[in-house]
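User: Run a structure prediction on this.
Assistant: Running it now.
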Amino acid sequence: SDLLTRQLDAARARGDARAVSSLTLRIVDLAGFGGLAGVTPRPDAREGIIDLLRGSLDVAPDDRALLTRLLGMLGLGDDPLDRADVMERLLAVETAEAAPALGEALAALRQELGDEDGVTRALALAHGRAPDHAPTRDRLSAWYAAREAWPELTELLGGVAGRETDPQAAVARYREIASLYSTRLGDPGRAADALRAARKLSPEDGALLSELVQVLDASGDRGAAEEELSRALDGTEGVRRAELLRLRAWLSLRHADDVQAIADLEEALALGDPAASAELSAALFERLRRTVEQGDADGERAVILRLVALVGPSDPAQVEEAPYGFLDQVVWA
């Protein structure tokens, strides 16, 4: 034992962390605190062994074996704050298998001590050591949400999304991130980034594109929204093209571009999308209002005639030669 102690002192002096760990554990074992069969620990040696471990940790502060032994030496009668600090140091280097349980125990102890920041650190450390452990991840997520720690929650979910092996699960995470950026953090630009990441995984998801266009428009970047739509429309035909045209028409109407909206909706209607009819009628009525304001009589009549053709009676004789009268009955009544 004296020889081991001298060797330990020499290892500490030269900063040899590996030798310090090995020699310290050997001394602890021989003192009966390592669980060796046939070796009974002396109660009066406990404090000395704790001091020995603390001294060795000054040289090897991240040594998992030393931290594990020290934590095992500390009992319920010891300072709970000291135990919590040792647990936190151990958690930072713990294995993925053991980290969740240790993190939960540390979080509970920190909560007993009234240390909410300590709870956050415990859960975050446990997640960092075992990122694929769903209960730990969910506990941390709920903890952040309850405290409205939105930046931390979006960062957590971003890491989760990046590790997802199921594309649809990842898309759901990115959507959640986008929602947080839009509704909680007021950052539509970052929301758009999240939705773009989702679209890479699910490029045919029309709802995703719609969400992205709306977010980009909300951020004041209409040009980017139109670029997304143009790329999606390129080479697209049939029903899918009609849906995209209707979405672009919505964007155009948002910016008082009823001429472009009407052109897109006319094409969508020609492609057989029944939903385009009502939307085209609304766009035409908006165009009609604008032509009246501008005093554009020719434009006004052209819009009215198109409206009559679109929503008028099946018998043209009912309209006679006064489409305005028809609109008076149908629209302004």
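The two ends are 104 Å apart (CA to CA).
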